[in-house]
Design brief:
The complex is a heterodimer.
Chain A: E1 19-25, E2 28-34, H1 40-47, E3 66-69, E4 72-75, E5 88-90, H2 103-110, H3 120-133, H4 139-145, H5 157-176
Chain B: H1 21-24, E1 41-47, E2 53-59, H2 61-65, E3 69-74, H3 75-80, E4 85-87, E5 93-95, E6 101-102, E7 108-114, H4 117-125, E8 128-133, H5 140-143, E9 162-169, H6 171-179, E10 183-191, E11 203-209, E12 214-219, H7 224-234, E13 242-245, H8 261-273, E14 277-280, H9 283-289, E15 292-293, E16 296-304, E17 310-320, E18 350-357, E19 364-366, H10 374-392, H11 396-403, E20 412-413, E21 419-420, H12 425-436, H13 441-450, E22 454-463, E23 475-476, E24 479-480, E25 483-489, E26 495-499, H14 508-520, E27 527-531, H15 548-575, E28 582-585, E29 588-591, E30 594-600, H16 601-610, E31 621-626, E32 635-644, E33 651-661, H17 668-687, E34 692-693, E35 699-700, E36 719-722, H18 740-757, H19 771-780
Parallel strand pairs in B: 1-14, 12-13, 15-19, 17-18, 26-27, 33-36
Antiparallel strand pairs in B: 1-7, 2-6, 2-8, 3-7, 4-5, 9-18, 10-16, 11-12, 11-14, 16-17, 20-21, 22-32, 23-24, 25-26, 25-31, 28-29, 29-30, 32-33, 34-35
Helix pairs in contact in B: 10-18, 14-15, 15-16, 17-18
Classes of the chains: A alpha+beta, B alpha+beta.
Chain lengths: 177, 793
Amino acid sequence: MSSLYDVIPPAPPKGVSTRRTTINVNGTSQTLDVEPRLLLADLLRQALQLTGTHKGCDTSNCGACTVLFDGRPAKSCTMLAVQADGHSVETVEGLANASELHPIQEGFKQEHGLQCGYCTPGMMMTAKALLERNPDPTEDEVRWALSGNLCRCTGYQNIVKSVLWAAKKMREQDQEA
Amino acid sequence: MAPLDELKIGGMGASRRRVEDNRFIRGKGNYVDDIVLPAMLHMQILRSPVAHARIKSIDTSAAWEVPGVRLVLTGETMAARNLAWMPTLSYDTQAVLATDKVRFQGQEVAAVIADDPYIAQDACDKIVVEYEQLPAIVNPIQAQKSDAPLIRDDKENQASNKIFDWEIGDKAATDQAFANADVVSKLDLHYPRSHPSPLENCGSIADFDRATGKLTVYMTSQAPHIVRAAVAMVAELPEHMVRIVSPDLGGGFGNKVPIYPGYVVSILASILTERPVKWVESNSENLISTGFGRDVYLEGELALRKDGKILGMRMKTISDHGAFYADAQPTKFKIGLMHSTFACYDIPTAHLVSEGFYTNKAPGGVAYRCSFRVTEAMFFQERMVHAAANDLGMDQAEFRKVNLVGDDMFPYRTAFGFLTDSGQYQKCLDVGMAAIGYDTFKQEQEEARKRGKLLGIGISTMTEPLGAGNSREYDIIGIKMFDSAELRVHMTGKALLRTGAKSQGQGHETTWSQIVAHELGIPAEDIVVEEGDTDSAPFGMGTYASRSTPVAGAAVAMVSRKIRAKARKIAAHLLEVSEEDIEWELGRFYVRGNEERGVTIQDCALAAYSNIPDGLEPGLENTAYYDPPNLTWPFAAYLCKVEVDAESGVWDVLNFVAVDDCGVRINPMIVEGQVMGGLTEAYAMANMQYITFDEEGNCIGANYMDYLLPTAWETPGFELHEVVTPCPHHPIGAKGVGECATVAGPAAFVNAVMSAIEHTGVRNVDMPLMPNRVYEALQTGKDVSGMPPVLSD
C-alpha cells in the first residue's frame, strides 16, 4: 500500500476514503486527494515538502506550526487539511522571493531574533499578520500579538526588536513606493 | 600594508550576524523530522497509562491486522535480542520496552512500525495490555520508608529504593564551626521538578543497510559521539559501522543528552524491516517520558559570626531521580557538581551529604541548562545567603561583600576543593547595585508600603564551574571529557572546520569561524563549520554544561595555532628567509625589519598545495584535542526589583539587572542572546514552570496547557551589563556563559519576592512563586512548601 503521508498518490489507495481538496499555497493552487483526518501541518510538511512549518506541541500552545490562513495566523497542527479546501495558505517558504528576503526575515537576522530556529517560522508568520494590520505597533502590541507563539531560546526581547525593525523598514519601503 | 581590521573580518569581539540564520529564516532548517529517506517507515510507541504496575499480558494481534502495519515490537521481542534493557549514562540500566513491570506513567511498552504515523498510531491503540497495579511512590520521602514497595526489583542487590549515598567535605571541622557560631541560619527548600522543553521534541531515523552492515541514525542528540559508543555497545555493532548524525536541533537544554528507548527501538525496527524507520515523539510524550530536571530537597545550615562572616556550611540534599538513574553525571560525582555551591564565598569549612532515590516517575535530574546540578547548588546557596543576612539583620549586599572571595585571593581553593581562578566579584555586584539604584531602594520600599504597595529587591551572586573536563576529574561512563576541532584550509585560503561539539541554537557556525578569524586572519565568512556527523566530525563529548566554548572553542583556537605554525614554515620558504626571521600579524607573515615583504595566510595556503618546501608534508590541515586544565569560572551578579500585589499575590518584575563576567566575549550579540534566554528560563522556574504528580503517579503537566511556559507577554525585559575578567587558562580567555542566567537567575526573582513579603514573618515560599502561594504567605505569614502530596499509610 502506498502511503498517503509521504507522498500524496495520484489515485487514492484502496479502502481509504479521500476528499479532493484545492488549496492555494504560497500563491500556487494545489489539488490533492487527502484523507479527511490528515492535519494541515502534515499536508504541508509531507505532501508538499514545505518543512519550514514545524510541529512543536499537539495542543495549539507553541505556535511553531503557525501559517497564514486567508491572511490570518492559524495553527496548522490543529486544522484538518480538508478545512483548507478553497482557501489560501501562506507559509514561511512564501516570505522571500528568489532575490530578496522579506523585511521580517531581515529583522530576525539583524536583531538576533532566533537561536535554534524552531519557533522562527511561526513567529515570523504571526508577525507578518500583525504588521499588515498594524504597521506601527508598540512593544506591548508586539508582545501581545506574539503571545501565542512560544520560544525557549531567546527570551523574546530580541524577537520583539526584530519585529519592530521590520515594521520600521516596511514603513520606509511604503513611503518610497 | 595596513593591518587587517579584526572586527571587519568577523573576528573576536564582532557581533557578527549569524550564518545559520540564513537557512532558519527561510524555513530551510534541517531538523530530524524534516528528513525523508526513500521507503521510510514510521514508528509510534505505546506507553504505560499507569505509574507502577506488573504487566500480566500484552496482546498485539489486532495491531498486526491493521493494513499498512509492518512490525509490532514488545519487551518480549526486544528481550529475545537482548535489547529489553539498556545501560544508562550513570551506570544504571533502563527498560527499552517494558517486560516485567512498568515503573512510571508514560514508560515505553510496545511499538508499531507502519507505512505512515497515522496508521502506526491506529495500531498502537489496538494493542491490549493487562496491568496489575502496584502502589506508586511519587517522592523520595515515600521512597525511603522501610515498607515502601521496591521499584527496582529487576536489579540484584537492590534491597531498597536508594540509589546512592554521597558525601564530601570535612564533617568534623564543620561541626566545630557550628559549635563556635554566634548564629545558625537554617533553611529547608524544594527545587521543583521541571522539564527543559526544547520546542522540538525528540526523534530518530534509523537506517540499517544490510548490504554494507552500516547503521546510520539521524537523531536529536546533543552528544552524538557518546551515542555512537553507546549504540555500538547496546546493539552489538562494530563502532565503525555506526554513524550518528545530529542535524539541526530545535533546542536541547540538556533534554537531548540522554539516550532514549525510542532511539533504540527505531534501530532494531530498521534492522528487522531493512528499511529506514522514523520515530518522532509528540510533545506530550516528550513531557512525560524524557529527561526531567531538578527535584531536589535541601536541608541547609550556615554557621555565622555576629559581624556577618560565614564560618561554615552544612547541606543535606535528597534527590528524586525517577525510575531509572539515567541523568548523565560525571562518574565521580553522584549528585553532579552540587558541591560547587558557595564557590564564590570565602568559607573555611563545609560538609555536604546527598542521597538519591528511585520513584515511580520518568527518569530525571538531567542538567537542564546547567553544568550538572549547579542550578540547584546556586539556588540553594543564594536562598541560604538571603535568609542568613536577614537572620543577622544585615543588608543583603553588605552580607555578600563580607563573604565574597576577593580579587586578590585567586587562585582560591573552595571548601569542597574546587580551584576558582579569576573574577571581580565585588565589582560585578557594584555595577549591578548602581544600575538598579540599590542605595535608594530601602527608602523607595518604605514609601511604597505607605501607599499600600509591596516592593522587593533580590540579589543573586554566584560563580559556577563550566566546561568539564579536565579529564582527570571528569568523564561520562568512563569517556574522558575533552573536546576536539579539525581545520582544513583549502588552497584558496577558504576553510572547513569541524568540532566534536553540537550546536542547538548557540550559533557555533558563527562563533567558531570568529575564533579561526582571530587566530589566522582568514575572514569568518570564508570558513564553513560542520558538526554533528560522527563519520566526519572529530570525537568530542558534545554540547551541554556550557562546555562548548571552554572546551571545543579552545580546541578551535589550538588547531588554528597548529595551522599557523605550519604556515610559518611555508612563509619562510616563500620569503626565502629562516623561520626565526619572520613575524606574524593578523592574516600575514612578514620579514622582521622589512614589513612590506610578506605573505598572507592565503598565499601560504596556496603554497601548501602548489609550492611545498623540501621535507614538509603537503596540505594545510590539522586536528586538536583539548583537555582543559581546569573548569572556567564565570561570575554573575543579578539584581531584581519586583512589585507584589497584596490583593492577589501576583508579582511583576519592575527591573532586572544582569551583570555577567564570562571572560572575553567572542560574539557579544550571541552572548547577550544566551543571557536573555537563560534569564527567561530562570523567570519561568521562579514563576510558573513546574511539573508535579498526583498520589497515583499521574503526571500533572503533560502538555503546555498544564505545564506553563512563559510567552512574550509575561516575560520581563532585562538590562544587561558586562565585566570582563579573562580566563587565565583558556587560550582566548573565554569562559562558559550559556547557563549562567538559568543558574543564578531563579534566586534573584525569589529573593526579590521574599524581600517584598517577609515583613509578614514568612521566611520561604517554594518555587514556583505562583500567586496562590504568595497570597497564602501574605495572609498567614507562614512558609509555603512545595512538597508534593505524600501518600498516607
